[in-house]
Amino acid sequence: MPEIYEEDYHRIIHKHLLQDEKYYLFRAKHATKSYWKHLNGKVLEFGCGIGQNIYLQKDKAIGLDISNFCKNECEKRGIKIVQDSRKIKDNSFDSILACHVLEHMENPAEILREFHRLLNDSGRLVLVLPVSCHNKPYRNWKSDRSKHLFQWNFAAINELLHFIGFKIKLNSFNYAYGYSIFYKLPFFIGYNSLQLSGFLRNRKEMIIVADK
């Protein structure tokens, strides 16, 4: 299934990131403010896409993505990227960030075990996941642009992390709605407007922090 996440997918799902440098930078600043407060040391972003979450921290982070298109886009921006975690030694990272990735994985337990292997003994995992808000019947997967395979809530992901051997440190919501509107504002105003709009519309993502 890796071929699904090549250029066509990203030009549909992440078109603003690819077409508008100011939007890309806003998302990079948003990631730094929202996610990086939980990260430390040498960081791996698993499923980094085109690298906006680590762009401003690329001196202490590398990305991992199976997509050749994403590899090329990251390298254009000076972001270090690898494509196969199996080539990375045990205990190589202080922190791992996986942002809107685990819901795409066919084998989430196996992926979490790989995170556990890659983290050092005091390592930290930060997962960012979409919120499962509704219990709806299955849709036509071909019409699902996001290509999600799993729906998550705090209970489900906490139980799986505990089973793998992680210690849960934080479960929180991060509210955000209107990236394509508020990125045009000065960052402080845009960021706070994004959060307020997300809270009012109940549009949010889950942030789960777990230690090895």
Describe it.
The protein is of the alpha/beta class and 212 residues long. It has one domain: Rossmann fold (3-Layer(aba) Sandwich). The chain contains 8 helices and 7 strands, in the order αααββαββαβαβααβ. The protein has helices at 7-13, 15-19, 21-34, 68-76, 108-118, 154-164, 179-182, 187-201, and strands at residues 43-46, 61-64, 81-82, 93-99, 119-130, 167-175, 204-211. Strands 3-2-1-4-5-7-6 form a 7-stranded mixed sheet. β4, α5 (108-118) and β5 (119-130) form a beta-alpha-beta unit. The longest helix is centred in the last third of the chain and has 15 residues, at 187-201.
The CATH class name reads Alpha Beta
Strand order of the largest sheet: 3-2-1-4-5-7-6
Mean pLDDT: 91
- Strand/helix succession: HHHEEHEEHEHEHHE
Radius of gyration: 17 Å
Kindly report the CATH topology.
Rossmann fold
Query: Given the C-alpha coordinates, what overall shape results?
Result: globular
The low-confidence runs, each spanning 5 or more residues with pLDDT under 50, are none
The separation of the N and C termini measures 29 Å
